[in-house]
Amino acid sequence: MHKLTEVSLGGKLNLAPIPKNAKRILDIGTGTGIWAMEYGNDLSPIQPKWVPPNVRFEVDDVEADWTYHQPFDYIHCRFMGNAVKDWPRLHKQAFENTSPGGWVEFIDLDLVWTSPDGSLLEEHAGKRFNNEFIKASHAAGIEPCPGLYLEKWMKDAGFRDVKAEKFVWPVGTWPKDKHLKEVGAWNYLQIMEGLEAFTFQLFTQHLGYSKAEVEVICANIRKEMKDPKLHIMFHLHVAYGKKPEAAPPT
Hints:
250 residues; alpha/beta; 33% helix
């Protein structure tokens, strides 16, 4: 996902105009830590043992009360759609823990699969899967399309100068545009490699599917996505905003 996002953003690690003198940066849900090491706070300690001297990893629950003693100059959060249940609270805590004049950036998806030419139909295995995935996510208390609401949540939390951008994520190399073709290649790869990983728990625990049924679904999707006439895509959303500067003393 890191490489896919970097390619989608034109080789950038972020879009917010972070000042060069930013010293305290928090990467929420850092995963392997690759974003933090290239430029953390994470529930799963899967980061490498060697890191740059100005990077420290912390294992924590981002939905619990934040207990940082110093605010951050920049907070970065991406792809937490499968982990966060109270997005407005997360945005509020990010606001409260940002320095006046500091920036916060959220990057996440709208996971509704569509097509620009109507080639994806309701009877397709991929569309049936996508509908069930959305249903299972809601049953689990998870918002599968947080990207749609990032801008609103940021504004509601108190951020100013909020900017929002949307990027197409094709599935496969069907686009004629060279850039989108590369994005689609990386997206196809991550979906094909991760189908079971992000399907089994949701489908078996919340929709009552058996393991065998999920395996059949994944096999059908892989077979169907080899069709060059099937043009699937969804969207990446980026929203970033600034915490207002502290008011001068009166």
